[in-house]
Amino acid sequence: MHGTGQFKTEVETFRKRFAFRKDGGLLVGIEREGFVTKDDEIVPYAHDVLEETRKRRMKTSFGYELSACQIETRIGPCLIGSLEKELRTSEEELREALRSQSLDVSYKEVAPETMPLDVYPDPSGRYARLVESMPEETL
Q1: With contact defined as beta carbons under 8 Å apart, do 127 and 70 qualify?
Q2: d(CA 66, CA 68)
Q3: Burial class (CB in 10 A: 0-12, 13-18, 19+), 52
Q4: How much is the pTM?
Q5: What is the Cα–Cα distance from 104 to 125, expressed in whole angstroms?
Q6: Which of 14, 42, 59, 106 is the most buried (most CB within 10 A)?
């Protein structure tokens, strides 16, 4: 068991590793990744879904991942008491954008080996450079 002094030292060491904002106290943020699907198959259409969310000027922030099959939902920072509402809103907005293209989302923890390995076409080319030396298992 740690003594109180040692525990305080460890907490301070941990806190110094990060730039905590004082105005962010008691706020939480969540990033949630999902796979874009069509007819229950994972498809590389994240770019199309993100374009749709931008056109609709949705309240929730959506972004891309390395895989062109994944989309990220960004919630917060918000008070924990409003988190459920924020999660529901983001899910409704994402499903609205997906439905407009006859797509859906799946929240699998691990993708099947048959998932397409397309990389999100970011304009900077950063992702394309990252995958040049990545083994297929990592992708």
Answers
A1: no
A2: 6
A3: buried
A4: 0.79
A5: 27
A6: 42
